[in-house]
Amino acid sequence: MTTDELMFKLQTCHRKWKRDAEEGIHKGLNYLLIREIGNDLVRWTDNNKKSVVLAKRVFAIIEEALENPSQEVLDLIGAGFVEDTQSCLYHRRSDDPNFDPDFFSAYLPPKLLKLWEELIKGWIGVQTIKEWRELG
Fold it and tell me: What is the model's pTM?
């Protein structure tokens, strides 16, 4: 799957992303769109079952792209989606001890989960976003 094919599939998951694509808001800027998708998922998924279904659909498409990815696809997913989504989760409701910043981990398919964990560990040597927060 190419980066454009990945982005096309992701855009079809939600009317906002499809509208943005149709209006050319992110034309040629896949990193900005995939970053926005991750940020939207974090904002929309606060124990909302409908949003969890959307997140699972996005994760399944990304997992499919990770089957035999080119370096370009891997970079887009790693730097564009995973790192930015982790950062958004790190900052999301950081003052709320009841909010689990690692809740997405339960929904990630195997290849995406492996990349998710490798990036967290590579940044600061911890396994979870919660541990990252504790480092301050």
Answer: 0.84
